[in-house]
Structure formats: structure tokens, C-alpha cells
Design brief:
The chain is of the alpha/beta class. It contains 6 helices and 6 strands; from the N terminus they run E-E-E-H-E-H-H-E-H-H-E-H. It folds into 2 domains: 59 residues, Methylated DNA-protein cysteine methyltransferase domain (Double Stranded RNA Binding Domain, 2-Layer Sandwich), CATH 3.30.160.70; 88 residues, Winged helix-like DNA-binding domain superfamily/Winged helix DNA-binding domain (Arc Repressor Mutant, subunit A, Orthogonal Bundle), CATH 1.10.10.
Length: 169
């Protein structure tokens, strides 16, 4: 299976995208934590429809619009991480949830006594599709901005962008 990459500029820095040819499989700020440094060596640079869709989504997003998600996404990992990433996709634009909120949801759904917030945090930090799978919308239980692989400065700017625009939507 071939892997492809492309990139685009954003107000918060260069963004690198990965695809299997059909779906978006990765989206990172260049050089962020967990960025696959060898991507450009093991993948082929290509212009693909999914990359054009992603660039259009990001353009709308950074213009303060709430883009509709029509990009095919694909990520493979442990069932737990994939479950957390699906929950991330349900966080509404302009809203935030805590790591504890996600842990409590999993506890309730599975009838568990306790789910580790640290396990949830680890899964959130390994999200391979930044912005579109909005891990930046997860904050500390006390409202603090904690952990973002793209950097806390970017997390703060993404949240401010969404919160400013969500009042007008």
C-alpha cells in the first residue's frame, strides 16, 4: 500500500498531511510532538483529492467558519485509542470537554468503576489527525490548558478562534 503526503501553510505554521490515496490518515503541524519525522522519506509527495478537500477545510476553519466534515478519515490503532478519537469528533465546535469528562463517559458506557484520565490523555495526545479530530478541545478538569502535541500556544489560539466564531454561528 502506498502512502502519500502533502503540506499547506496555516496561520499557525506549516501543516503536513498523510493519505493512503483515498482517506486522510494524518494531519500534523510540522515538527510537533508525535510528528512522523520520516514521513517525507517513506511516502510519495502527491496532489490528491483528499488533500485538496483537507486544504479547503483548513482554509475555511482558519477563516473562522465552521466547515462541514466531508473528508474521508482513516486511522488505525488500539481499540481504546480509536474509541477516544471517535469521542473527540463528537465535541461541538467552540466547546471543550475535560479528560475527566471523557473518562467518565467511558466508565458509564462500559459499567466500569474507574477509567484512568491519564490513559485518556495519552490517547488524546496520540491523535494522528489534528484539528479535524479536535483534540485541542480537551482541557484539564479545572479548565486549564494542558497537553497539546502541537504546543499549548497553538491550542490556545485554536480555542480562541472557535470560541469567537461560535458566538456568531
Amino acid at each position: 500500500m502506498s502512502i502519500y503526503w502533502n503540506e499547506t501553510d496555516s496561520p499557525l505554521g506549516k501543516i503536513v498531511m498523510e493519505s493512503d490515496g483515498q482517506s486522510l490518515t494524518g494531519l500534523w503541524f510540522a515538527g510537533q510532538k508525535h510528528f512522523p519525522e520520516d514521513l517525507k522519506e517513506r511516502a510519495v509527495y502527491r496532489d490528491l483529492a483528499v488533500f485538496e478537500q483537507t486544504k479547503d477545510y483548513l482554509k475555511q476553519y482558519f477563516e473562522g467558519k465552521k466547515p462541514e466534515l466531508s473528508i474521508p478519515l482513516k486511522y488505525e490503532d488500539t481499540p481504546f485509542r480509536m474509541r477516544v478519537w471517535k469521542i473527540l469528533q463528537e465535541i461541538p465546535y467552540g466547546k471543550t470537554v475535560s479528560y475527566s469528562d471523557i473518562a467518565q463517559r467511558i466508565e458509564k458506557e462500559d459499567g466500569m468503576v474507574r477509567m484512568s484520565c491519564q490513559a485518556v490523555g495519552s490517547a488524546v495526545s496520540l491523535n494522528p489527525i489534528s484539528i479535524i479530530v479536535p483534540c485541542h478541545r480537551v482541557i484539564g478538569k479545572n479548565g486549564s490548558l494542558t497537553g497539546y502535541a502541537g504546543g499549548l500556544d497553538r491550542k490556545e489560539k485554536l480555542l480562541k478562534l472557535e470560541q469567537q466564531k461560535s458566538h456568531i454561528l
